[in-house]
Amino acid sequence: MIYITQKFQDEFHHTHNVWEVDCDNIQELYIQHMTEEASRMDLVINPYWLNLMDYSIHNSHLSKSDFNKKSKQWREFRRNFTIDHFIKDVFQGVKHEYKVISF
What we know:
Order of helices and strands: EEHHHHE
Largest sheet: 3 strands, antiparallel
Number of helices: 4
Shape: elongated
């Protein structure tokens, strides 16, 4: 399966990488992995956007200071463990060269 990852920059989505992987459900597996990582950190996240859910409704089992500390850790984890890293490190995806052609 070929996957094209995108990066949002200057109000537009740009092609970031093109990967070839022997798996046809990378996105679902990535969401599952990220949800499990959040659970290990004792956080509740939105499985669609992978952002933290509201403290007062979903993460109130933590103290406010613990939530602030863990939310900082979560942001750092998300910044470092992108879908590109997941494809490369977990599934040993093959990165392909590409050119964008515009007319």
